[in-house]
Amino acid sequence: MVEMPRAPAALLAALLLGTLLYTTIALAGDGGVGTVTLDLQDKATGRKVTSELWFKAAADARIEQFSPRPPLRSIPIARNAQPQPPLRKQPLIVISHGNWGSRFSQGWLALELVRSGYVVVSTSHPGTVGDDQSVAGRYRLWDRSRDVSFALEEILKTPKWAALIDQDRIGFVGHSFGGWTGVSLAGGRYDAAGQRAFCANARKKDFYCDQILRDDVAGVPAQDAGNSFRDDRIKAFYIMASGPGQGFAADSLKSITIPFAVDTARFDEILDPLANSTTLARQIPSAKEVVRPVGHFAYVPECRWLVGPILSKFAGLPLCNDPTGVDRSLVHKQVAPDVVAFFDKTLARAD
User: Fold this and answer.
1) CB within 8 A of 230, min separation 6: which ones?
2) What's the pLDDT score for residue 351?
3) Which end is more exposed in the chain, N or C (fewer Cβ atoms within 10 Å of the end residue's Cβ)?
4) Distance between CA atoms of 181 and 85, rounded to whole angstroms?
C-alpha cells in the first residue's frame, strides 16, 4: 500500500508504471521461461483480471529482456510463447501483487518457481494496479479474492492450460495486499470497518493507516466484506510483508489449518510488521513465521541502477527504497529458495 500520487504526478506515475520495455536476446533453448497474457473478463463483477501464465517455454521461443516499468530491472522471458513439449501436469502457484503493483511484480520469483518445476499464474487486481488506482480498489480488498478464484476457474476450464496443471497441487504467494488476499482465500473473514477503526484509533499510524484514512469510503458498498472467500483448491499459502492484518475475525483465522508461511519484513515502512504480518502469523494456528531484516519493497523487482530511484522518486512512489544495508538482489536469492522449498514440501505428490 502506497499513497496515490496527485495529478499531475498521478499521470506521470501511470505512464511510468504502465510502460513495458523489452529487447529480444536469444532463443529459449532448454529451460527458458515463457509467458502468455490472459485477458480475463469477469462478467459477474465487471472486473478485468488480466493475468500472466508462466511455464517452461518451447526451445524455439525468443527470450526477451523485459521490464514492466522503466525504473525496474528487466528479466529474461519469452512472451507469447508455447509450452515446452511434451506437456505434463505440474503444480500451480498463484501470485497476487500488492498496491501499485502488477502481474509482473514478483516476476523474479515466478522465474525461479518455473525453473523448479512449477507453473505460475500471476493475477492483476483492478483498483490497486500501477495505472489503475481507486478508493474502492483499496477498500474492497475482498474483490481481489474473487479475482483469484475467477482466474483459477478460467484457466482450469481451458483445455490448453489445464493440460499443464495438476489441479490437486495448487499453492498461493502474495505480497502486501496480495498477502491479505491469501489470508482471505484461506478462510479469513474480514471486517473492513473494524480495520478502519483500528487505524483511526492507533496512536502511531503506519504508512498504510495514515494513507487509507484519507480515502472517502462513504459511498463504497461493503455489505459483502464479511463473506467467506475461501477457495479449497488452494492447498498452501506463502505471504510476504502482508496486511492489513487487524480486520479479520479471530475465529476465522483460528479455523485456518492448512500449510501457511508468513514472511515478515522487520523494517516494513508501509505496514507495521507487528500490527500486520506478525499479528496474522500469531493468530493462524498453522502459520510459520520467518522474520527478515528487510523493508516492504524487498519483495518487488530490483531497480535499475541510478535511474530507478530517480524515476520512482520523481513519480512519488517509494518502490526503489530499501533500508540501509539491504541488498534486494540478495534478498531475492534468499526468499526464492525458501518459497520453492515450502511448496516442494507442502504440495508434494501423494504417491
Assistant:
1) 184, 185, 186, 187
2) 66
3) C
4) 33
- Residue 257 has a CB neighbour count (10 Å cut-off) of 11
61, 24 contact by CB (below 8 A)? no
Residue pair 146/42 in contact (Cβ under 8 Å)? The answer is: yes
2 found inside a domain: no
Query: Is 97 domain-assigned?
Result: yes
Positions in the chain short of pLDDT 70: 1-30, 315, 351
What pLDDT does 192 receive? 96
pTM for the whole thing? 0.92
- Which of 203, 53, 208, 93 is CA-nearest to residue 141? 208
pLDDT at position 310 is: 76
Domain carrying residue 142: 9-20+34-52+85-346
Residue type, 187: G
Assigned domain for 310 exists? yes
The residues, any chain, with a CB within 8 Å of residue 20's CB and separated by 6 or more, are 66, 67, 68
CATH number of the CATH domain containing 312: 3.40.50.1820
User: Using an 8 Å Cβ cutoff, are 97 and 178 in contact?
Assistant: yes
Pairing, β 21-27 against β 62-67: antiparallel
Other C-beta atoms closer than 10 Å to the C-beta of 243 total 29
Identify the residue whose cell numbers are 490448453.
160
Sheet holding 260-265, edge to edge: 21-27, 62-67, 75-79, 33-38, 51-56, 119-123, 90-96, 165-175, 236-240, 260-265, 287-292
Q: How far is CA 245 from CA 183, 204, 335, in A?
A: 9, 16, 22
> In whole angstroms, what is the distance from residue 142 CA to residue 125 CA?
11
The distance from CA 263 to its chain's CA centroid, rounded to whole angstroms, is 13
What's the pLDDT score for residue 23? 59
All 3 cell numbers of residue 34? 515463457
76 domain-assigned: no
If one counts the domains in the chain, the total is 1
